[in-house]
Specification:
Number of strands: 4
Shape: elongated
Radius of gyration: 24 Å
Oligomer: single chain
Strand order of the largest sheet: 1-4
Mean pLDDT: 86
Largest sheet: 2 strands, antiparallel
Structural class: alpha+beta
């Protein structure tokens, strides 16, 4: 006799649980995009401006327009669907 079990049986009891967890995460992200539609700019880290190489002056970030924030991807999708 062999001490192992044949690997022919399929086990799908965890699939509904994974789908439920995925839907919960998606709902959490949608709620987060609704409450906090902006994220920090990735180029300037939310500061909105950069120092010049000499360090004496500064300039506005071109990616966020000097605001330091950008719309989240989920919020952009939401606005596009709303239109």
């Amino acid at each position: 006799m062999t001490p192992y079990v044949a690997a022919t049986a399929t086990h799908t009891a965890g699939t509904p649980a994974l789908i439920f967890i995925g839907l919960l995460l998606l709902a959490g992200y949608v709620i987060g995009c609704w409450i906090w539609p902006f994220r920090a700019c990735t180029r300037c880290d939310g500061a909105g401006k950069f120092r010049s190489p000499s360090g004496r002056s500064w300039r506005y970030c071109h990616r966020c327009g000097g605001k330091g924030a950008q719309l989240r991807l989920g919020r952009r999708l939401w606005n596009g669907l709303k239109r």
